[in-house]
Each structure stands twice: as structure tokens, then as C-alpha cells.
Amino acid sequence: MNRKFAALVSAVAIACGTVTVPALAQEAGQVTEGFRVTPYLMRPSASTMTLNWFSETGTPAAATVTSADGTVVFDGEVAGEAQPHLAYTEAELNQEIAGLEKGSWLYSNSNVKHQVNLTGLEPDTEYTYAVTQDGVSYADAFRTAPVSAGVTGDWEAFTVSAFSDSETEPAGRPAVSGAREWDAPTSLAEGSEDRPGEGSAWFEKFGSNTRYGEAQPRYPLTQDQAMKANIAAIEEMDPALMLIAGDLTQGSGYQPAWDEFWRYTAGEHSGIAGSVPMITALGNWETYAAMNGGYGESKQGLATGAAKGRTAYQTYIDTFGSTNEQHQDSYHRVDHGPLTVITMDSTNGQPDTLAADYDGNRIEGNDLALEAADAIGTDTNQEYTQEGIHAAGATDQPDFSEGSEQWNWVESQLADARAAGQIIVVQFHHSAYSSGVHGTAHQSATPDGQPGTPLRVYTPLFEKYGVATVVSGHDEMFERSFVDMDGDGAGVMHYDVGVAADGLRGEYMVKNADGSYSEADFNTYSEWNAQQDSPELWRTDANGTLQLVDGGKHYGHLQMDFAPATCENYAAEITLTPVHLFPVLDSDYNLVDIERRTYDDVQTIRINEDGSAAPRGTACEAPTPAPSAGQPASAEGSSTGGILAVLLALFTAVGGLAVQGLPGVQGLVNEAFRR
């Protein structure tokens, strides 16, 4: 049984009424039986898995975990622990959102965490589990990681999905106001008509934003629609892991944002986190409390908002941590077969600085000029200081700067993974190489208060230990940069994947003396970004409606496919595919479909036998022979498809099940019949 089968079981159970999530409460206080957050996976490895869920009643739950051969590895009662710091604040209870009925997005004011820590599991093995909370049942399945024996070990191909900046919030639901700005592309495709302008039917339908002195059309999908589509597309690819490089919510200290995040990943819209482990990083929004004090320090002297946000994040997210218990879930490592994922905390560098500190001492030019002056900076957030956040109670805020405890931990993990022959992927939030507004530095002539450039201090380490890919976000770009400081051809591919469901920003534009705007053009390492390299193509359809038919920047994610070698001169390869979700509209601009498309920048990284990235341009020598004609294919697809079809027929016969309206289910049903 694979994860798609497990997801269908869960979706069918929801449809049949055996799984519920709490009803929404107009006034927080109505405690509902069942799951506030359905079970989701944490701490994945070859022998462990943690199962978390949240209830409102706090009643002990019953949980059973069983291996594929029927061995019961856990069967018991699971008590809950109340999390009073997650209660709604008065500001949250009184919030009004245009387009939504007041309070319609709220649950009760009770959050109780339940947890099962599974150890001693068998590697690369399927386990099913069932949890019953207050008489409400939930069932799903997961697979443990393969044994980590280096890239030359015995392993099969697998997929990892990566994104950042989902920034979920209930305000992302309403039509028009729930959609975000859509920065103009650098240029339009050859033969394209102009983008819709003021007075157009597009502006009337979707609204507009003023960007760089000009009115620009809003994007046709709301943040809510984008997140649903992105999760559904990821789920269809059956990934082994899901990397989220920070900014999960629109303020981690804002509880409705967390409620919304779990609706997409472990609740009413999808249960993907119940079968695919999430590996997450702290972003700047994880140190932000939104209406509950923001970052906090600028108003109160203490970083209360930042501390509140970090505490909520660490309540929901459990990791293997580091060697320092005080740093809790700030930075951590996960191994999955030949892959090692090292997650860093990029939210605090030392010393703390402000962009204004460099007034009168600014450096003109691009990033090469700042690198030459050793002026890439040290601090990624000028809104609070380490002293302030510690005074507010967040003792876990680590420094990432050279020589810090986190630095030493990262280097030790890189060295260990390289000695073990692992492929190394690193993730953190603040993109070190970006063409966006956060891509500059405090000392730049075009400064930013939350730059990612200080993370460039790690570039020599990443090259030394043969890191294959770095995944980040923050700038809400879809961009790829290649960095090869030592010139040996085996550099590091950096991605900004901040296109999950929030902003669709373009390059950093600076205002000229005459009032016009031009690109800052700061990141010289950029090789591709959606804004520049996928020009929009607008055409008028047969009904006289101006339509986008191709190109443009859209929401999406990075698909990372890991596979053993097909050639004798390297051990493995990673295929990196930038995926985007393209909205298809009818002549009245009603949404007809959201298509999964890929940008024309698919990259392949070939991996040496020691797990390091091979130089670009490495040719394939002596390809591995293809299977001979008539060789039987793997039975997994056909048998699973048969099970799915039988299961569907069974449920249809018993209950007249209608699956069309269930999120994610129709695709699974279609998959069953395709197989």
C-alpha cells in the first residue's frame, strides 16, 4: 500500500463521516470532539517516526500502528497536553475580515497536543496507523526511510518536494482581497498583446495594486486557491519528504494563521502531512506575531512578538534538534537513504545591525562590489535584537554567524555526511542569492532591512563539502542561482522557492532621480528566474477576452527527483524541476482549471561516488543497459491500482460515495483507473 492508497482511505473515511475536524465556532469557546489537527508526521528516519495530532477536549485517544506484515508496534492510550499559549488573543477574537463572516474561521479556544514517539521501526517499511479521538477515527500510512548507506548503497528513486512562503491566513480566502500583487514581468513574449490595464475587464474582476508607480493587475487566484492547488499537485507526485523553507504562516504568533496552515496539510483540505513528513525551517514570519505585537521590540523594547511566534512554531514542529537542547527545533538534520537534509535557522546573525547604521558609508554596485569589500553583512532582521528576544523569553534564538555554535554544528554535520557518502541538501529561509528586494545588504546603496546576503558566509563550507542544492525562500521569487567560488565547475545550486501561496513579487526595483524605476540588478549569480525568463504571452480569445495563455510567474514548488546512476562514471543524479500552477479562465474570467506546468529550466546535478556534486557538464559514460524486451515491470503500480479500484467500487456499492467534491480524491481515483 502506497501513500496515495492511504490518502484515498483517509478521504473516503472523511466522506463517510468517520473522520471529522471541529466545527467552526462563531465565538471561541465551543469545544468540539474529534480532531482539531489530524495526525501528522515528524522526526522521520529509518527507525523512528513521531505522530502528532491536536484535539480540543483533551480526552485520551486510542492509537494503533501496524507494519505491513501485521505486527502491531504500538497499541495504547495517548493522553494529551494542554497548550494554553495557543489560545486566541482578544485581538484575534475581535478581528474582522472583509468578505468573511466574523469569527467564521475560528475554532474553540482549546488546543491539546497528543504525541506518539515510535522507535525501533524497520527501515523502508510501510506502516499503517489508526487514531480514535472522542470516538472519531482517522487512518493513514507512512513509510520509514531507507537505510543511509551513502549514495553507492542499495536504494531506489524517490521524490522530494520543496517550497517556502505559504504564509497562510484566513484573509487569503475572499475573492479579490484574498489575491496578491502580481508584479509585471521584465518583458512580454514575442507577439504578445499588452497586459490588462486600468479600465479592463481583468481589473474589474480581480482588482489591481499599484506597484512601482503603476497599476498592475492582481493575480486571478486567491492565496487559498493557490495553496490548495499546490498541495494537490505535490500530493499527486507521492513525495517521500516535503521541505518547507520557512514562512509557513502569516505570523507564527497569530493563531488563526496556524489553524489555516493545518487545514491545508492536516485537516479539511488535505491530510498530506499524515503520510508525507514535513521538514521545516524557521523564517522571519516564525518570529512575527502579526496583530499580537509584530516583532515586538520596536514598540516595547522586548521582542515579545518574536518570542511568541517561535514558541508556537516549536509547539507544533518537532525535530531531532541539535546537540544543544536550548536551541530546540531551530536547526536539525534528517537522513533519508542517500540524502541528508540539513536545516538551518537563518533568523539571527551577530552582530545585530540596522541598515541605517551605514548611512554615509554605502557601497555602490552589485554583490561583487560588496563581496570585495567584505560587506555582505551579519544580520538578517533589523526589527529585533538577540538581547531583546532573549529578554522576552526565547532562550533558543541561535546565532548563525561564522564560529557560532550553529556554525560549528553545521560544519560537523556536513563533514559527517560527506564521510558517509551522502547527497547533501541544505535549507534555510533567507535566500543568500536573490534578485528580489531582500537580495541586497545593509551596506548596499540599495539596502534592505531583512537581507539574505549574510548567509553567503556559508558558501565556502558548502563548496568544500560538495553540497548539491540549497533551498531557501523569503524573497518570494522563483529563482535559480549557481555559485562556484573556487572555479572547479562543481558549484552549488541555490533556489528561492518562495512561491507556495503568498506573494508573486518580481526583481528589486529602485526609484531613479526622474521618478522612473529600474532593476537593482544586484545578484550576479542568477541564472534563471520566472519573472525574466518565462515571458508572459497574452492573446485575445474568440470571444474578445484578453487571456494569458502561457508564461509568467505563478505559484508552485520545486520537484527534486533523486535516482541511482544510469552511467558508470557517477553514482546518482538529481533532477530539479520548477513546477507552477497555471490558472485557466473562461471568457468571463471564471476559473476553469488549474494546470500543473513546468518551467523550461529543468536542471540535472550528477553526483560522485562520495556523494558530492560533480562538475557541471559531466558527460554520461557507458550508460547502464536498459531492461531487456519483455522483462516484467514492477507489480507495485498495477496491484495498487487494482486495490484502489476495488476499494472505490466497495465504498460506492456500500454508501453511494460521491468523490468529485473531495479535495485531492478525484486525482487518486483517476490514478487508480489509469493504472
UniProtKB/TrEMBL annotation:
Keywords: Signal. Residues 234-475 form the Calcineurin-like phosphoesterase domain. InterPro entries: Calcineurin-like_PHP, Metallo-depent_PP-like, PAPs-like, Purple_acid_Pase-like_N. Residues 163-204, 610-635 are annotated as: Disordered. Pfam families: Metallophos. Residues 1-25 form the signal peptide. PANTHER family: ACID PHOSPHATASE RELATED, PURPLE ACID PHOSPHATASE. This is Calcineurin-like phosphoesterase domain-containing protein. It comes from Corynebacterium guangdongense. The lineage of its organism: Bacteria, Bacillati, Actinomycetota, Actinomycetes, Mycobacteriales.
